[in-house]
Amino acid sequence: MTVDEYILSHIDQEPAHLQKLNRDTHVMCLYANMCSGHLQGRLLKMLTRMIKPKRLLELGTFTGYSALCFAEGMPEGAELHTVEINDELEDFIRQRFDESPQAGQIHLHIGDAEKIVPSLGGKWDLVFIDANKRNYLDYYNLVLPHVNDGGFIIADNTLWYGKVADESAHDAQTVGILSFNDFVAADNRVEKVMLPLRDGLTIIYKKPADS
């Protein structure tokens, strides 16, 4: 048994509908490795349980796995807005959301997050950034002013296949992640911790203005 297998055998089981979604993603979609999967999905649900967000924003839906995990953990009456730029995935995503017990709490938006998010208005208790890696810092600067004091941002893929530690990696995605990581590390408006889970997960806490 590998360490990964041991971990998965000692956490909550992956719900059947998410197992099916994971399989469907790998059979029907390109870049299926972008699907959050069992361990990260259970962590996202647990973090949502702990934070108890009333309003949650996700940038980068892909096939909806992470959104469904957030929805599982949301308190009653909470709402999740999730934004996906790939319109070819819309029917696939909507079918899975419609089958969810939390269907009425999930709002899917298809298009460019930098155009859609300002139109949504309001404040956010939790934001999950998992969209175009080139634009991570733009997304951060877009959403942080609208995160409630004491709220959280979670950023996925912040180790980017280990390329962040490879000085020879200069592709646009790696440069985008590096810029984001460096900016957040130096930002005294927030507390942050980076976890070596899967492809890197950074949890960011927005300090109250008077702290």
TrEMBL record:
InterPro entries: Cation-dep_OMT (IPR050362), SAM-dependent_MTases_sf (IPR029063), SAM_O-MeTrfase (IPR002935)
Keywords in alphabetical order: Methyltransferase, S-adenosyl-L-methionine, Transferase
GO biological process: methylation
A GO term, aspect molecular function: O-methyltransferase activity
Protein's UniProt keywords contain Transferase: yes
Identification of the protein by name: O-methyltransferase
